[in-house]
Every structure is written in structure tokens, then in C-alpha cells.
Specification:
The protein is mostly helical. It has a domain of about 55 residues. It is built from 6 helices and no strands.
């Protein structure tokens, strides 16, 4: 019985291989015909002369470019590169490094100006409110602030 099963399996394997070969041949034939049908026919290019045919245009056209003396130009460039340029004066201010936070100060400067204006407005409003409430006289406040400031200076 086992011999019959083995023979049957071998026959099925051979049949499967034949089917796969047939399928492969069919796909190859199909792909060749598709490639032939999918070839795009490009139009042949038309070469045109861009020389003007009108006499008015011929008169205003630029003459064809003529090559100059390239060797002399290259030689001049090389000579100019080999010569040393001596700097007579050296400006040390241009060589001094900038402070590390110079860019931050530059960028934040505009914002600080706006904040300074707002701060001044807020201080002015606070002073007006205190004057309206009549809590204390402005002159006594200023005098007290001046004394406190002078005491701080004396301690230093």
C-alpha cells in the first residue's frame, strides 16, 4: 500500500510540474505580447534653424560668438592667484570676538522696549490710583523713598 501511495504522489508531483511549466510559458508569451503592444512610438524630432529669415531680424541679431584667447586669460588668472597681497593696516576692532550673548541682546532689544513702555504706563496708573484714593501725600512718599535710597548708598 505504501508503494502505491508513493507512486501516486510522484505522479501528482509530475502533473503539478507540467502545469506550472505550462503556466510559465503562457505568462512569458503574454508578457512578450504586452511589451510589444505597450511600446510608445515617439515622434521624430524636427530640427529647426534658428537663424532669422527676415532681413529686419537679421540686422538686429547678434553676431555669432567667437572664442577669445583662452590661454592668455587662464595665465592671467593663475598669475593673479600666485601673487601675494600684503595688508598694510590691520584693524583690530574687526578681529575682536563678539560677546557670546550679542545676538540675544539684539533679538530681545525690541521686546524690552515694548515692556519698558508698558512698565512706565503701569507705574503711572498705580500712582494715579493712589492719588485718587488719597492714602498718603505724594511728597511724603518721595521723601521716604529718597531717604531709603540714601541709607542704602551710605551702607555700601
Amino acid at each position: 500500500m505504501t508503494d502505491e501511495k508513493i507512486g501516486c504522489l510522484e505522479d501528482e508531483a509530475l502533473k503539478r510540474k507540467e502545469r506550472l511549466k505550462a503556466l510559465k510559458r503562457k505568462q512569458e508569451h503574454k508578457s512578450e505580447s504586452e511589451v510589444k503592444s505597450n511600446i510608445i512610438q515617439l515622434p521624430k524630432p524636427k530640427f529647426r534653424s534658428y537663424n532669422p529669415s527676415d532681413d529686419n531680424l537679421k540686422a538686429s541679431a547678434l553676431p555669432p560668438a567667437e572664442p577669445g584667447n583662452v590661454e592668455a586669460e587662464v595665465k592671467d588668472q593663475l598669475d593673479a592667484a600666485n601673487t601675494r597681497v600684503v595688508i598694510e593696516e590691520l584693524d583690530l576692532t574687526n578681529l575682536a570676538p563678539r560677546k557670546p550673548d550679542w545676538d540675544l541682546k539684539r533679538d530681545v532689544g525690541k521686546k524690552l522696549e515694548r515692556l519698558e513702555k508698558r512698565t512706565q504706563r503701569a507705574i503711572a496708573e498705580l500712582i494715579r490710583e493712589r492719588l485718587k484714593k488719597g492714602q498718603e501725600d505724594l511728597a511724603t512718599k518721595v521723601a521716604m523713598g529718597a531717604r531709603a535710597n540714601q541709607d542704602d548708598v551710605d551702607e555700601d
